[in-house]
Amino acid sequence: MDEISLETFEIFYNENKSKLYIPKEIIGTKNLNEENIQKWYSNIEKFSPEVESDSQEKVKEPYLFFAKSLMKIFKYIDFNTFLKNVESIANELIIKIKENQKYEFIYFLVPEEISKSNMWVTLLLFHHLNIHPDYKDIFENENFRSKIKFTTNLVNIAKKIANNGTNYKDILCIYCDDMSYTGSQLYSNIYLGKKYNDIFNKINVFIAIPYLTPLVKAKLKTLPYVEYSNYSIVINRYIDELDIQYGKTHPEDVKNVIDIMVNLNNKHKLANLASMSSIGYVAIYFDHKVADELSTFKKILFTGAYPVVNETDCNKNTLISGCENEKIDFKCNSQLYIDYELSCYPSFYKTIKYTINGKNIKTSKSIMLLKSLEYTRGGRSKKNILCHYNIMTRSKKKIGKKWSIKYKKSINCNRPKGFSQKQYCKFGKRRSAT
Fold this sequence. Notes:
Strand order of the largest sheet: 1-6-5-7-9-11
Shape: globular
Number of strands: 15
Distance between the termini: 47 Å
Helix content: 40-55%
Structural class: alpha/beta
Strand content: 5-15%
Mean pLDDT: 79
């Protein structure tokens, strides 16, 4: 099973811990731009198609109600607030580990891709564990340190337990992320299925996610081996928050308008507001990112989009402060555009340039890359810490594998394919003949 030790992860963490924090001058600067929001309201009122009401009148009031209620409900989480929640979860985890010294192994579940939010939050959590007053008492005990591992897959851990059932009795797995909206990615990473029913009592998955939705909370309750942090903050869907704040004044009208705005109703040409397939979206964004359009109203924030009857009427402007000068390049009646990004508001964790031994990591893989550190500590040369990893990732190129005589005879030196065949025709064929 692919796994790395605590010692290896500490090397990676210590080299990159200074890159984990958002610069102070950026924190808290991504508030909603009130001036542009007023322009958005005006655009909706002037150019949006009318909606038929119960009294057979055509009105635009539901559009404006949706827009104004959405702006009221939107939650902006600055980095200091987010970090405070991560710190609270780290403190809770320290207590959990201290009270359960019986754990035979503790696994941190990290993503395959090093640029994912999961890796960033794992590093932030590890940082707050590291600076906790009780960290040394727990994590510097050699016997305990040997129990802590990092791996990518809960199923691999389950297989390890299943193959050595009598040797493993209690294992803690820690899964980190910034927020879970639908729980699909989270669930796929921690779901074990009926195949591993017999090990549910041997494994405990602790969800270290600062923010999640009621939908995620309900999904987690179906898994007996999973618990989420007491400090995880539950964020409602827009439509549920609407009922809480406004009662059920306009629920049906608003649902119809959302359908129109998200291109589920093809009656009008639309300025795409989000690529939503239902009304289960969350009105939230962070200093470190605006989540994709499968979860949030990203396109509204980034483009100030709204339904239009005529595309020439479409005025576009971002609703987030600090992005006023951003050129917004999309057509109002275009197909859904899921991955729209603003250069003024990149996902922070994707901009981090992680290094090992001072060298930038060019690959998206994490575990295999960190395993190269263990390879170099095993008595081999440390001159190029990435050398072993580079060799491993090029295995498909058949490095070091000799060509067969049959293959050599099949090469047409009048029309060689690729650099290797050209070199063979130029030099190797002559040597073979000799």
